[in-house]
Amino acid sequence: MSDEQARSLPGTEDRMPDQWGHWRALHEAAVRQFELYGYGELQTPIIEETRLFVKGTGESTEIVEKQMYCLDTGEGQSIALRPEGTPPAVRAYLERNLHKQHPFQKFWYAGPMFRRERPQKGRLRQFHQIGVEAIGSVSPLLDAETLLLATDIYREAGLKQWRVCLNSIGCERCRPGYREELRRRLSTRREELCEDCRRRLKRNVLRVLDCKMEDCRAVVAELPEVSDYLCNECREHHGAVKRVLTEHDVQYEEDSRLVRGLDYYTRTVYEIKHPALGARDTICGGGRYDGLVEELGGPPTPCVGFAMGVEASLLAMEADLGPATDSGGPPAVFIVSFEEAARERCFDLLEALRAAGVPADMDFEGRSAKAQMRLANRVGSAYCFLIGERELSAGQVLIRQMAGGEQWTVPWQEAPREAARLLRGDP
RNA sequence: GUGACCAUAGCUCAACUGGUCAGAGCACCAGACUGUGGCUCUGGGGGUUGCGGGUUCGACUCCCGCUGGUCACCCCA
């Protein structure tokens, strides 16, 4: 590739026509389940005020600290490419005063997100999420519903294996106590922790639980579990979520070390992981965020939701279902002209076929009849409609069935209807 | 932000330890009864071996720099 040619940016990718198979399957499964579950589509802009994420996602999160694409509008305003979908959804909710009219809302969204990270397998700078937000209810039934919804989507999309990890990280009432306890226990063993964890000790102790370093894990193993510190309400809530999940046959693993990277999570947190993905195996993450709406200037409003990583989910689908495929089918009919002079008449017929609802195509490169046939064969068309001087003067179309090689003629005017009939499989 | 590995035709790769190779398969194009695909056969186009230096009589092969890519850590979907 020459140097002056423009290239795609690192961490961004093109999705070519033959790579849409799994994507479409996932998206269609999701849309169908969203309808079944009563979630309405919400589309928000890709750009937002930077402060929405600073307040919403959390000032001290990695995402906001160093991964956001921010730009100055030149009018003294800082805007950001959205790094995630939840704060914009809540912003839209508040901006329309839905909390006053119809406080309970269920939204779904799908679209690109942006984070300035080092790209690697399953992680891009422009990536895509499909997610839901159920805003305005504290019911544990909804925690379960979002998880059931996510697994139903994966099931319908054809995914075969996954596991659900579940935890409760408490609320703003009980978490401080746990956090305090962690800080106290950890500071006595500060020397054994990695550099990052020493930093986390001050900034965000909970993340120490998630550290992958061997030495840290050893220390973490001896720490009390968050479940011992939950307040009665949180304990009850968590119990209800688990009861409903069990009732509805969701296999889950309790993982007392599961914490999430975003500040706004409370109580229920969960991840769906796929075994074929290695270290970075989360394909969907979610949970409850009862404090976010208030943080963004609204009234206290409990919420729960999830975000699926589309690219990660696609990798999981490839592992379970094989490589990505073409999304659409081939043109059912391929028109072949024997002479260059017949080409425009071929195009007339082509348009007539399409008008009759028959997927059809022809050659536009002036190839020989033989090459046109080869092309028809390669793209997998079921029939060729062959046209030359003889057919034109007789007012006929020569039809060839590619599979068997049988040929017959039909009157020109009948051709579109004949094609439609052949595709339906009528005798 | 840290680290490792990689870079030859459109794709996947080969070229003994630097010494007639710049090659193979697939793909593509064209022929094999000048109105017809698949299979087979034949032929063809296509690479200044990522870029720039250096060592050497000689570099795809060794050294340095740059660029690009991949993967892992970090973090997260």
What are the salient characteristics of this protein?
427 residues, alpha+beta, BirA Bifunctional Protein, domain 2, Rossmann fold, 2 domains, eight-stranded mixed sheet, five-stranded mixed sheet, 16 helices, 38% helix, elongated, RNA-binding
Describe this protein's structure:
The protein has helices spanning 21-37, 50-56, 62-67, 86-95, 98-101, 140-157, 175-187, 195-203, 214-221, 232-247, 292-295, 310-321, 343-355, 369-379, 389-394, 415-424, and strands spanning 40-41, 47-49, 70-72, 78-81, 105-114, 126-135, 163-168, 252-254, 266-273, 282-288, 303-309, 333-337, 360-362, 383-387, 396-401, 407-411. The protein is built from 16 helices and 16 strands. By secondary structure, it is of the alpha+beta class. Strand 15 (396-401) and strand 16 form a beta hairpin. The mean pLDDT is 89. An eight-stranded mixed β-sheet has the order 1-5-6-11-10-9-7-8, sandwiched between helices. A five-stranded mixed β-sheet has the order 13-12-14-15-16, with helices on both faces. The chain has a three-stranded antiparallel β-sheet with strand order 2-4-3. It has two domains: 17-174 and 230-321, 2-Layer Sandwich (BirA Bifunctional Protein, domain 2); 333-424, Rossmann fold (3-Layer(aba) Sandwich). The protein binds one RNA strand of 77 nucleotides through helix 3, strand 6, strand 10, strand 11 and helix 12.
